[in-house]
Amino acid sequence: MNQSKFGINTICTHVGEITDEQFKGAVSPIYVSTSYEFDGVDVKRYPRYFNTPNQEHLAKKMAALEHTEAALIFGSGMAALSALFLTFLKSGDHLVVQNTLYGGATHFIREELPKYGISFTFTDGYEVSDFEAAIKPNTKLIHIETPSNPLLTITDIAGIAELGKTHSILTSIDNTFASPINQNPIDFGIDIIMHSATKYLGGHSDILAGALMASDELIGQIWHVAKNFGGNLSDHTVWLLERSMKTLALRVKRQTKNARKLAEYLDKHSDVKAVYYPGLKSHPQYKLAKLQMQGFGGMMSFELRDGLDALKFQKELKLIKSSMSLAGVESTMLSPSLTSHALLSQEERDAIGISDQLIRFSVGIESRKDLKADIEQAIKNIL
Ligand SMILES: *Cc1c(COP(=O)(O)O)cnc(C)c1O
């Protein structure tokens, strides 16, 4: 069958499965060898070369989900991101990055890139013109993250891809927040896609992993560097990730619907001051989000009205967990000012709109009535 014509749920369930020829079992066997025959074989297999059977097969599912030719699976999102940066940037090169990024990515850029003689500019804003203004003669890569964390700002993917092509600069995107179910940046011309598979791809808050998706040529270049850094994922976890990804589309569609309904509910709530969700018509970039996303995703942020304490509210929640990570099947909340953005000063946080009142909400797959009831009782208890 022509796998490229498969629907999204079929890709999640079947693409990249390994047929169990020996026992005819229904699921992919796990091949755990670190040692393979060398004589008379075409492929020299070794786990760190990203080419054991489980790694190679799951990479096919990853590539199919993001409409790319190829993919590599890494031990974490940061292993994927560092391999991406250190493949396409060398001493003397310059990187343009969006002004707010996942905290770990910001730390990597600020703390590690200078050691390699790589310079960088964080843009002033999210408009394509902000990125253009940051370009220098030695810029080799433009990296974006949309929707952004934690305020769900949208960057124009096609505009950035076009900008890169005009200046012969590669473009990459952290597509973790949207997931491949809600956004496929390759269709808008972006060169390389990165995921923290720890989030939606894994989806059960029990796997640390990452991925890069791109053309055969670009993935080939990354592979040459990545095998030297040694950041592949172990085959046991590759297998668990494959198991998780069978339900990826089901989970994300449910999370997206829950998030949209809860955003509308919070938006109307008299004890809520603001809701940041790209699927609300009041979001300043609703039209752009609608253009480049198939769904608006399971992530949002909101602020309680003045006088209601965000931390006390979260402590009163019984069902929704307070949690550092995101995108699991269970709903979680956190205060960015105390977690991802705690290292910034109050002024720096104010400048980018992250107040102490701001709560990031990763919406799970639970019944909406129970999530609403939990929010209601928590608000009542802090009034
Ligand atoms: C979690 C996350 C990362 C880092 O991924 P790890 O798997 O923790 O290394 C990068 N980008 C985004 C948007 C994330 O949420």
TrEMBL record:
GO biological process: methionine biosynthetic process; transsulfuration
Segments traversing the membrane: 70-89
Family according to the record: Belongs to the trans-sulfuration enzymes family.
GO cellular component terms, semicolon-separated: cytoplasm
GO MF, one example: transferase activity
Cofactor(s) annotated in UniProt: pyridoxal 5'-phosphate
The protein's name: PLP-dependent transferase
Keyword Transmembrane attributed: yes
UniProt keyword list: Membrane, Pyridoxal phosphate, Transferase, Transmembrane, Transmembrane helix
Residues modified to N6-(pyridoxal phosphate)lysine: K199
Entries under InterPro entries matching the protein: Cys/Met-Metab_PyrdxlP-dep_enz (IPR000277), Cys_met_metab_PP (IPR054542), PyrdxlP-dep_Trfase (IPR015424), PyrdxlP-dep_Trfase_major (IPR015421), PyrdxlP-dep_Trfase_small (IPR015422)
Highest taxon of the lineage: Bacteria
Organism: Bizionia argentinensis JUB59
